């Protein structure tokens, strides 16, 4: 084995959640992104770009930054941990994330310059990260910004994750996700698949979610007509008693539930609305 090529992967958690929903509900893949498989696809990309043996191309660390409620879904935390991803929780203020972009940029800069990392993957579409990509490139770090190719979808949903033009322009390594995943379809591809099929969200002809998601009631006070659910990926959903199964007027905090609904909040709303909610 030769000298290790160290890769760091940095997740903008909310953006990545929309990306996974996009592939599960609107893309022809009709499957969610596997974190382990995504890391392998990135290793393969670096292997192809550098000509180095695949075993030398290693995701040495990964970081996931997202605003989190006080009772996040333990199941998603377990998924992050099993993939070797370090979680960075940021507080929510009025239901909105604060400081996520700053924390992610600082973490990426610190790890890239002190480990050091030869390659940094930014899983985000925010133009605020363009200066980071530019400065890392100037330090000799190769920055990968995968982008979503909406041309592969007949009717992209309103919540399709996009990549801002300044961020695209800040690095020459901007593979489309479809191109990034294409080698994994080859019969002789030696690494893990970047997709995991889930009964909780599959594609419908209209590109809308069907099937049921799962989560846990994170907040519902006695006497209130609504509460909140944390799904298995850490996302927060608003739920009204009008959307509960017949005979229910509230759900106790900690109750496992399944539900349907679009991950895109309605205009003027902070959270997506869970529908057809029932205890599991």
Written overview of the protein:
This protein has helices at 13-25, 35-50, 74-82, 100-114, 130-138, 165-169, 177-181; strands at 5-12, 32-33, 57-67, 85-90, 92-93, 96-97, 119-123, 142-144, 195-196, 202-203, 209-210, 213-219, 226-231, 236-240, 256-260, 275-279. The chain has a five-stranded parallel sheet with strand order 4-3-1-7-8. A five-stranded antiparallel sheet has the order 14-13-12-15-16, with no helix packed on it. The model is unreliable at 199-210 (pLDDT under 50). The protein starts with a strand and ends with a strand. The chain is globular. It has 280 residues and is an alpha/beta fold.
Task: Give a quick summary of the entry.
With 280 residues, the protein is an alpha/beta fold. It has seven helices and 16 strands. The strands form five sheets. The protein has a five-stranded parallel beta sheet with strand order 4-3-1-7-8.
Integer-rounded radius of gyration = 19 Å
Strand order of the largest sheet: 4-3-1-7-8
Count of runs of 4 or more consecutive helical residues: 7
Largest sheet: 5 strands, parallel
The span between the termini is 49 Å
- What value does the average pLDDT take? 86
What percent of residues are in strands? 25-35%
Order of helices and strands: EHEHEHEEEHEHEHHEEEEEEEE
Low-confidence stretches: 199-210
Structural class: alpha/beta
């Amino acid at each position: 084995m030769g000298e290790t090529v160290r890769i760091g992967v940095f997740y903008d958690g909310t953006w990545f959640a929309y990306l996974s929903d996009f592939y599960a509900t609107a893309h022809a893949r009709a499957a969610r992104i596997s974190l382990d498989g995504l890391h392998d696809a990135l290793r393969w990309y670096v292997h192809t770009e550098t000509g180095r043996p695949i075993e030398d191309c290693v995701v040495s660390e990964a970081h996931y930054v997202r605003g989190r409620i006080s009772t996040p879904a333990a199941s998603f935390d377990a998924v992050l941990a099993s993939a070797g991803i370090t979680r960075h929780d940021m507080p929510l203020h009025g239901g909105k994330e604060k400081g996520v972009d700053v924390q992610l940029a600082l973490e990426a800069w610190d790890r890239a310059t002190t480990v050091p990392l030869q390659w940094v993957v930014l899983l985000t579409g925010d133009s605020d990260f363009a200066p980071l990509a530019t400065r890392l490139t100037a330090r000799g770090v190769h920055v990968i910004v995968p982008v979503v190719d909406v041309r592969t979808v007949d009717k992209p949903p309103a919540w399709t994750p996009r990549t801002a033009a300044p961020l695209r322009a800040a690095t020459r390594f901007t593979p489309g996700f479809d191109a990034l995943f294409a080698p994994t379809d080859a019969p002789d591809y030696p690494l893990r698949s970047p997709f995991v099929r889930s009964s909780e969200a599959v594609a419908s002809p209209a590109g809308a979610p069907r099937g049921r998601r799962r989560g846990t009631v994170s907040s519902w006070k006695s006497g209130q007509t609504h509460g909140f659910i944390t799904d298995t990926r850490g996302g927060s959903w608003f739920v009204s008693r009008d959307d509960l199964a017949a005979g229910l007027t509230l759900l106790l905090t900690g109750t496992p539930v399944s539900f349907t609904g679009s991950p895109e909040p309605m205009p003027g709303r902070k959270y997506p609305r869970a529908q057809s909610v029932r205890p599991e």
